[in-house]
Amino acid sequence: MTAWRQARAVGRIVPMTARLGRRAAQDIRQLGEALDAAFPSEPVRYLQILGVAPTAQGRGIGTRLLGSGLDAADAERVDIYLETGKSANVAYYRSHGFALVAPGGPLYPGGPPMWRMRRPPGT
Predict the structure, then answer these.
(1) What is the pLDDT of residues 36-82, one digit of tens each?
(2) For 44-123, which CATH superfamily applies?
(3) How many CB atoms lie within 10 A of CB 116?
């Protein structure tokens, strides 16, 4: 992320962690550090968040949202990288050409399971 986007994210995370307490803040920091360490070293497009309200799922909204990012990455000839904390999302992303980077599991001891996925251009 650019420095500007990181600053904006911190501005949103700090009040949230203050409400959640010290332990939650430590968990969030630890997860962020683990995600940073696992992030690809070469340039990729990063799919940070994609979500559709449960009541609107199954209508192709997520596929349309994802499609614009896939098209842009294909035009640039660059991979797309993502992490998901839901095993059920793996099949969805596979159907759009993503493959697992590594088996799903915690990125640090005691952390939540994460599935890291990547899609080469034109897939």
Answers:
(1) 888 898 999 998 888 888 899 899 998 998 998 899 999 999 999 99
(2) Gcn5-related N-acetyltransferase (GNAT) (3.40.630.30)
(3) 20
